Structures are given as C-alpha cells and as structure tokens.
Amino acid sequence: MSTPRNVPLRRALYVGTFIHCKTLQELDICENGVIGVDEHGKIAFLERDAENVDLVTAAHGWGDAHIVRTSSSQFFFPGFIDTHIHASQYPNAGIFGQSTLLDWLNTYTFPLESSLANVNTARVVYSRCISRTLSHGTTTAAYYATNHVDSTNLLADICLDAGQRAFVGRCCMDSLSPDFYKDISADAAIADTKSTIDHIKSIDPTYGLISPILTPRFAPSCTPPLLHALGQLHRSTDLPIQTHISENLGEVQLVRKLFPESTSYAQVYDMYGLLTSKMILAHAIHLSTSERDLIKERDAKISHCPASNSALTSGGAKVRWLLDSGITVGLGTDVSGGYSPSMLEAVRQASLVSRHVAMLDGDAAKLSIEEVLYLGTRGGAKVVGLEDRIGGFEVGKEWDAQLVGLALVPEAKAAQHEGALCAESFKLPSGEGPVDIFGWESWNEKVAKWVYNGDDRNTLSVWVKGRLVHQRS
Ligand SMILES: O=c1[nH]c(=O)c2nc[nH]c2[nH]1
Ligand SMILES: [Zn+2]
C-alpha cells in the first residue's frame, strides 16, 4: 500500500523512537522524539525530549497534522541507500552457480539483460524489482538498466510512479560483448544515453526524485572512443557516473591487456575524465595503494558490495583501508552478482566480510554495527551526492525513512520455563518478523539483533520525501 503521487501530502508528525547514524562510530538514539514533516516532505522541526506531544503540536501550530507513533519495540530509521544494483538482473537473484565474474557475465547475465529489449518483459521485471527493494526499506537506488532505451526509460517511469528515489543508467557497452547484446558503436551508445537523459528530464525536470546517471558498464566493455565521449558528456552535463572497478583478478588482467598505455585500472577512467567526485566505483577489491590514492585525490566514491563479492568469489574489499584513506564508501546489493535485493543483508554481509578480512589483515579491519549502518545510510547519501538531502534525520532534510518493528515476547511467555509448557508456548505470532525482543535489551542491542536477524518483515512502513511508498500488510 502506498500514497499515490497525485495525492497532495499532508503535514505529519512522527512520534517515538528515532535512531540514525550520528557519525561513522556512533548511533544517535532518541526515545521521546517528535519529527514534523511538512507538505513538501521536508523535516520542519525535530524535538528530542518531547514528553507531551500535544504541547509540541500546539507550539508549532500543527494541530491538523497526521500522527504516526512507534510502539515500545519499534523505531524510525533512515531509508537505505543502495549505491549499486542492476534492476535488469533481478530475475537472476540467487542464481550464479559456481561462476566467477567473466563467465558469470556470459552465462547468466548477458542473456537475461538482452531479454529486456522487450518492453513488456522489462515492465514485469522492473515493477517487481522496485516493489521488492521498497519493501526492504531501500528509499534510494543507483540502478543499472540495460542498453535498451525504451526499457531504461520505463525503469525511470516506474521508479517515479512508485515514489522511489533513483539514479537510472542506460548501460553503455560497445566492446567485448555478445553480438546479440552490444552497442553498435560509440556514437550510437552516446545518442541512446542522451535519449534517456532527455526522457528523464521530461518526467522529472529538476531531477527531484529521478536522475540520469552515465553508465559505462566497465572498462573492458567500452572502446576508448566511447570512454572519451562519456567523459565529454560528463563534463558538459555534470551528471553522475557509475561503473565497476577491480572486482576480479581476471578482469584486472584483461584491463591491463586492453589498455596497455594505462598504469592502472583506475587510471583508465582517469585518462578519460571519468574519475571525478561524481563517479561511483563498484567493488574496488583489488586496488593498489597508488590507485587508492588516485581515487582519494579525485574524490571518487566507492560502492562496497559484500554479498556479491562472496557469491562470485571475487574477494574481500578492504573497507577499513579505504575509509582510513578518507575515501567515501557506501553499500550496494549488486543484484544479481549479489543474491539479495535487501540492503539489510548488504549491511550484515559488510560486517561479516570485514571479519574475514580481519582474519588476514588484523582486527582493525572489523566493521562495527554502527559503521555498517552508516555505510548503508549516510555513507550511501554521500556516494550518490545527496548528503544534504537524505541519510539522516535533521531539519531541512527530506523524510526518507522506514519504521522498523521487532517482536516483543510477552513477559508471561518469556517466563514459561518456570512452569509447565503448553502447546500455546510454542506458537509464534504471525506477522511480527524474526527478531525476538525479551525486554532487557538496550536500544543498541535491539539494533544489533535487527542487523543480524532481521528481514523485510521488520520493515513495517517506508516513506520517500514524506510520501508513504510501502506498508506491510
Ligand atoms: O558485479 C558486476 N555485475 C555486472 O553486471 C558487471 N558487468 C561488468 N562487471 C560487472 N560486475
Ligand atoms: Zn554490478
């Protein structure tokens, strides 16, 4: 259930517990909060110790506002920002067999993506992908579509209709791709990219919700003329860019062979004017120190995709090493290299992958709960260049949020072990999700239980720019 786009927003008060990331290391937990969201979907005020909501309402003259309250086992949290996801690969989520990147592309990915030449197929795939990501609390996504203009434009239409904030990229690939799925020339790829830009401009002229994003698939899929032309287009439009980098050792070797004049993979993008502060680089696993330093110097951003990196046995990205150098990092599901459209799963996998990296590099590599949640929200906002508008709860930001609910085990049932067990004791309540709360947990512990055990059943409601875009029925 959601509020249609043509229904004007009402002012709303969100009352109860708010949790968001204050810094990379610290959660801000506010138990008696009131957030006022205006009819434009912006946070107008935020009161922290509001024992009496009526007083707050009266003080702000918001008596007519709609009120949403949390119960004792619920909290508001910023919507997740998926900085790298292939909407076009959603039907393959979970299907990757024993493959690694280059054979996975040929076996699973190109055949599926090419089928989205059919707009009706694309409609089914994209509609379900957007509904599903919204149900997991993804309020913003940087999407790869395919190289088909009509289907890519349809993805933008569907995001706008569903109310999801999105960057939509028509995938450019004029080299090393199968004949049935390839741009016929660099010029054709640029002309088609411009068609998608024009379309998005026509449906959302200020890019208030949907923005185009330039999308060279990755260096091996693009000829030098295409990379050059995309660099020019980036300079003339100032649009963001997304691509892949150093995901797989075979891919790194291939880039060395294809671009012998370049000193590194990162330098290929730099050479063509693509390595800028508006570039989102997915993966960045096998970077040299000089590449890391170049990325930092250009202020390019990194999308860490832990579930995908484990699934395709690509490697473990050294996130601490990237963060310590001052690079901005966010998280991506990378469906369908990644098996799940859930950003909560990406958050969880970022924690676990960092523990595997720690087993080789030392304990400092471990990421905390606070850190992985930061990457999934505020870090992601910086990666997509929207840190002034989303990622946390501050006055002036837009209300992109999720209501998270955990299952509070009734006291009587929690104490059953003292008496005789009856059939009733074994019954699980339906619809409360898989995270059980016994009443003694601190808020930090409740959040940890959500991160490690939660799923979309815990995401009760989702708002983007103040509009309700998903509600669990
Ligand atoms: O994870 C990935 N998914 C893709 O579709 C892709 N294409 C090039 N490199 C890629 N990596
Ligand atoms: Zn990818």
From TrEMBL:
GO terms for biological process: guanine catabolic process. Residues 77-469 form the Amidohydrolase-related domain. Keywords: Hydrolase, Metal-binding, Zinc. The keyword Disulfide bond does not apply. NCBIfam families: guan_deamin. This is Guanine deaminase. Pathway: Purine metabolism; guanine degradation; xanthine from guanine: step 1/1. It catalyses: guanine + H2O + H(+) = xanthine + NH4(+). InterPro entries: Amidohydro-rel, Guanine_deaminase, Metal-dep_hydrolase_composite, Metal_Hydrolase, Metallo-dep_hydrolases. Binds 1 zinc ion per subunit. It comes from Trichoglossum hirsutum. It is an enzyme of class 3 (hydrolase). The lineage of its organism: Eukaryota, Fungi, Dikarya, Ascomycota, Pezizomycotina. Belongs to the metallo-dependent hydrolases superfamily. ATZ/TRZ family. Its cofactor is Zn(2+). Catalyzes the hydrolytic deamination of guanine, producing xanthine and ammonia. Its EC number is 3.5.4.3. It holds the Pfam family Amidohydro_1. GO terms for cellular component: cytosol. GO terms for molecular function: guanine deaminase activity; zinc ion binding.
